[in-house]
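User: Structure please.
Assistant: Input sequence and predicted structure:
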Amino acid sequence: MSDWIELFNGRSLDGWTARGEHAWRVAGGVRLDEDDPQRLLIEPGAGVMVNGDAGRTQDLHTTAEHGSCELSLEFCVPEGSNSGVYLLGQYEIQVLDSWGTPDSELKFGTNGGIYARWIEETRTAYDGAAPGVNASRPPGEWQTLEVRFHAPRFDAEGQRIAGARFEWVTLNDAVIHTDFECTGPTRGAWNEQDIPSGPLRLQGDHGPVAYRNLRMRPLSG
């Protein structure tokens, strides 16, 4: 099995880019603003990437592409904030402040959910998967997401023979998904069709979010 690859060196955004100008920057830490719990106060230093003071900017993505992999990262959001982690830039695991949501009300859009697909003509969502349990921590606390992901597979003629599959997903050490196969890219994907490889993408335009300790281990299939 391959070794783990550090995706963020903690000191700069080398290896990351965006489609246009962006406000992502390196910080020493973040904490919840006591006067406005929908904001993160950004501390100087290194070790954390944060999507700017306003918390709304372009998505950030790796310049390198990946296929099947294991992924581990930590994230922090304030009250009501929203982000997402896209494997291959295509298949989103939701990042959201879902503290206190009852398990009976979990949806694909809850923290840790595998986001749904979308029919623009009828504006309806389909597929997707709610997390099996709400393992979310309170806003302002760091949370850990771990994923074992298999990229779509294609035959010699380029025909898809298997869809993107999340073998497992854990949130804060709780298993929230097992063996979920996507029928196609989730809503917001950069390509309408399944692809065998792509960048890791972090959503930056839905509210304040910070990430740290991002690392990936390539898998053979």
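The mean pLDDT is 96.
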